[in-house]
Specification:
With about 200 residues, the chain is of the alpha/beta class. The chain contains four helices and eleven strands.
Length: about 200
Amino acid sequence: MSSVDKQPWREHFKSWRRALSPEKQREAASALVSAFWQQCEQTGITTPSQLLLGIYHPIAGEVPTDLLLHDCLQRGIRCFLPVMSDDVRDKVLTYREMTQESEFELGALGVSMPKTGHTMSASMLTHLLIPALAVTEQGARIGFGAGYFDATLHAARKDNPKPPLCWGIVYAEQCVPELPQAPWDERLDAVICVGI
């Protein structure tokens, strides 16, 4: 299927997210913390400090991750944020470690990322939290359409005997029965749908 098939979905959920109040976004940030730990428990994670977590700073109404980041750092979990290449043709993201003391800069597309810190490929992380505009319970995902996360997931999984688990993060209203998909679309391993 072509990306044209996805455009109505993108427009619908962008509009829906723009209408969310700051109060609803704060509710979602809080709900994400408990939903994340519930997902960890369901997948048998018994030692959270062994996680190498790729997470995101939200843009355009994505589910806020600030409370989860704070909680993870307090528990001793190493957290990494995506870093875009200066070459916009390079779609594969690397991940830079974030600490409580990190200073940030805006990268391409207005994405906030740590200025300094240990940087590694997504394939070296244990888990990736991926934002989306819409998902299915089977792991299909629609994002903004730039292809960064699809390229990153493909690279992280290719020839990797232990690729990171990729969990999509969305509001419950963004979880739908089916979505159009293209051959290059990478599926999520699980979906965390945050109710508000």
